[in-house]
Amino acid sequence: MIKIIGLICIVLGSAALIYGHFSYTKEETAFEIGSLEAKFQSKEKVVIPPVVAGGVLAVGVGLLVFGALKKK
User: CA distances (Å), 11 to each of 4, 33, 37, 38, in order?
Assistant: First the structure.
């Protein structure tokens, strides 16, 4: 189980280092009067700091090493 979590952390940390951000579309209702409603969409961008991505990657490597040592 520790190895699987380690691999997931390595994949997520590597992806965060490579891409550095992700974006998504957020839809909100401005007003609603009876059956009439107005909605708007806004694009949000989330920046992942390289220190956090590197930390997740390091934790993943540590979990893999710990999992290998624990098995012996």
Answer: 11, 47, 42, 40
| CB within 8 Å of 47: residues ≥ 6 apart | 20, 21
Which position has the higher pLDDT, 5 or 71?
Answer: 5
**Residues 6 or more apart whose Cβ sits within 8 Å of residue 39:** 27, 28, 29, 30
State pLDDT tens for residues 22-72.
Answer: 899 999 988 898 889 999 999 999 999 999 999 999 999 999 998 888 766
- Locate 50 and state its tokens: 């390289």
SS3 of residue 48 by DSSP: coil
Nearest to 60 by CA among 20, 3, 1: 3
Residue 6 CB neighbour total at 10 angstroms = 20
